[in-house]
Amino acid sequence: MNKFVSVAIATIGLMVSGQAMALGLGGNADAGKAKSVTCAACHGPDGNSFNPDWPKLAGQGEAYIYKQLQDFKNGTRQDPLMSGQAMGLSDEDMKDLAAFFSSQTISAGMADADKVALGEMLYRGGNAASGVAACTACHGPAGVGNPAAKFPALSGQHAAYGKKQLNDFRSGTRANDAGRMMRNVAARMTDAEIEAVSSYISGLKH
What we know:
The chain is mainly α. It has helices at 2-17, 29-35, 37-43, 62-74, 82-87, 91-102, 116-125, 136-139, 159-171, 181-186, 191-203. The protein contains eleven helices and no strands. Helix 4 (62-74) packs antiparallel against helix 6 (91-102).
């Protein structure tokens, strides 16, 4: 069964990746830059946040950013800071912000050397014994994500932020993943595995 799940997820990823051209939403990046002044306080002026607890948005998929902003606004995804920020955004604002941040370049991260081996094993091969699917199936070998499927880019993301998201998926605190895919994966991960793969992702380079 575990092998079947892994193959199924990989097949979905490959099918969608054939359409994985960047999805233009009609947003205006220049307008998004002007509207991002408030965002810069947490995410940095170019989408590279200084606080490792807050995500880097630079280079993230346009459709993914747009969806997350929608989810924060409608309550599908909740966060004490972002839920309030998103409430005041129009649909056009969201598209403009998504266009701006997706056009920026993410800064490089660094993995902890003592976590690389386990992190790479999980990212590239998963854990067949516990049914943890390989991250590459949806997020790609280099962590660039899958824009067509709204699967996020992961490479260079802060390890602390990645760890929190996996823990939130595991606990069900975050539940805006399509088909419970991330919740099902994270539910099978140990604390050590979450630590390792989050660190490994931070050091991934496009």
